[in-house]
């Protein structure tokens, strides 16, 4: 993995963010038909990978900085792709409203 690969992913993320900029307003419930659930699952796995890398780093084993950066970008990319797919299918997301904290 090189910085150029990260730059490519960032350019794709930026492209899709522009397409769904009006939908990027908050948290949504992971709903939709394939491949949306799979993308939400991939997002969850990327988040778990970041947490695992933090634990490894806390144990004194150096984690190359590009790895958590890549995983974090993948988290965002997978989320934005779910919005793109649902928008193209004319499906509205269900906003997540915390019962603990109320509307933010």
TrEMBL record:
> Does Phosphoprotein count among this protein's keywords?
no
| Ranges for domain Cobalamin adenosyltransferase-like | 2-84
GO terms (molecular function) for this protein are: ATP binding; transferase activity
Q: Which InterPro entries match?
A: CblAdoTrfase-like, CblAdoTrfase-like_sf
- Top-rank taxon of the source lineage equals Bacteria
Q: Say if the entry is tagged with keyword Magnesium.
A: no
Pfam families with a match to the protein in the record = Cob_adeno_trans
* Keywords per UniProt: ATP-binding, Nucleotide-binding, Transferase
Q: Where is the signal peptide?
A: none
Protein name as it appears in the record: Cob(I)yrinic acid a,c-diamide adenosyltransferase
Q: What is the lineage of its organism?
A: Bacteria, Pseudomonadati, Pseudomonadota, Gammaproteobacteria, Pseudomonadales
């Amino acid at each position: 993995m090189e910085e150029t690969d990260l730059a490519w992913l960032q350019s794709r993320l930026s492209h899709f963010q522009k397409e769904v900029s009006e939908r990027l307003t908050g948290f949504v419930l992971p709903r939709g038909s394939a491949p949306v659930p799979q993308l939400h699952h991939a997002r969850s796995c990327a988040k778990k990978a970041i947490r695992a890398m933090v634990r490894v780093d806390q144990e004194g084993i150096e984690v190359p900085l590009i790895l958590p950066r890549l995983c974090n970008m993948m988290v965002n990319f997978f989320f934005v792709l779910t919005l793109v797919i649902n928008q193209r299918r004319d499906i509205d997301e269900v906003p997540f409203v915390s019962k603990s904290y109320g509307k933010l």
